[in-house]
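Q: Could you fold this chain for me?
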Amino acid sequence: MAHVKCSKCEHINPLGVSKCQRCGNPLPYIKIEEGHEKQEKQSPPAGERRKDSFSISTLRRGETFAGRYTVIKLIGRGGMGSIYKVFDNTLKEEVALKLLLPQFAKDQMIVERFLNEARIARKLSHPNIIRVHDIGISGNILYISMEYIEGRSLREILESLPPGQRLPLRKVLLYFDQLCSALEYAHQFTVHRDIKPENIMVTTQEVVKLMDFGISKLMADTRLTGVSVVMGTPFYMSPEQVRNSRDVDARSDIYSCGVMLYEVLTGQVPTGIPKPISELIKDLPPELDKIVEKCIQPDPKDRFQSATELRNALQPLKELVLSGDEKTIYSRPTEKVKKGKLAISRRAI
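A: Sure. Below is the predicted structure, expressed as structure tokens.
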């Protein structure tokens, strides 16, 4: 099923709504033809299709794009573009093909952001980061082909949970350990700037894949982001990113991780002075309060200074949850978890 992503807050909305269900921002009208026969009746032959027709219709199953990619199906659609599952006739494998809608190709900054995603991602090679294969342009359509993932985004996973239910703590800690591993590596080259559940893919084998470096910038490159331009998703943006998107480093991603960790564990994003996690969810250990609180400190110097520090802080909790099957788990004395009794309810695990 296709969805429409809000270009303002990037909430995933069901197809057919005119305004974003989260922020009220007007959504673009999207016409999608899902049946092959219906598409055949309403579209001219493939050889006669106008180059600008992608702005009002989808690619058809079996159609070849850019002389290389055979369309299998539409995966999703948002305010800036579409993603298809395709067969790459050069690599001889299924890949994901991300297209930028033609009307946005007229905006040079958006084009630069789109191209920047590919330039940066092509430099990154890590098991927890989506691999980019190719970048190109066909007619007036910019595209990126990337590793195809069988799985769901963390947002889709959260939204699929029944009301009142949360992800088990064991899964949360495993997911965030892999995310931190990806950021440890990526921060050698870039700051992601848009860490959120929509950009975290989880495969059917429970492997986390970080995606969408479209608003990132190489640390050495200062051309793309103007002082007046704010890039990111408001709910997850650090205070310094809100003030000046140019003036951020890896600690901004740490802030976003803290917001996301709070949301995954409690079902809500932290606002104002947030209540400690263990007060909202009684069967979670208070050690998580300290970790999240440090992640979302307003001043970057008061946060974890790297993804490695955050990963090390979560590691003792992860080891305890994975190794213990008693209702009460006793922690070893470490710098991150003080000596004493760490109570973790079986329901949380």
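A (continued): The first helix runs from residue 36 to 42.
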